[in-house]
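Re-run with default settings, no changes from the original entry. Doing this only to confirm the output is reproducible before filing.
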Amino acid sequence: MSVSKYNSEGYYDPTAYGAMQTIEQEQRSLRAFRPIVYICSPYAGDIEENVAAARRYCRHAVDTGYIPIAPHLLFPQFLNDADPNERQLGLFFGNALMSKCSEVWVFGKRISAGMQAEINRAKWKNYRLRYFTEECQEV
């Protein structure tokens, strides 16, 4: 968006121009900063449905101005969740990523064992926790 130095009647208007420049600059800086949030939602069980839900939750984070991190969308791509050692490794990686996030967002009313471990860690480390419904409404 380009701001004109002239008003709608064609007259030079430095006051309006200055105000509009300031507003435009503030909007650009808001778009430039996006806090990182950790997405906590179920993976085990109905994996196909849970992955689709996690994608929706990440999209919600993006649409509201955040950068989502969802380890359960990333690590199962190359770690075997059925192997207890690899599952523990994935949880460890997730904890490392959680430490880089400004908030932990918990989605849904069902809290899986993995989610509970993430919530407990977030509480222990005093990370900000926010809870959302499956429809992405904050509770």
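The helical segments are 14-32, 47-63, 71-74, 84-98, 113-124. The longest strand covers residues 36-40.
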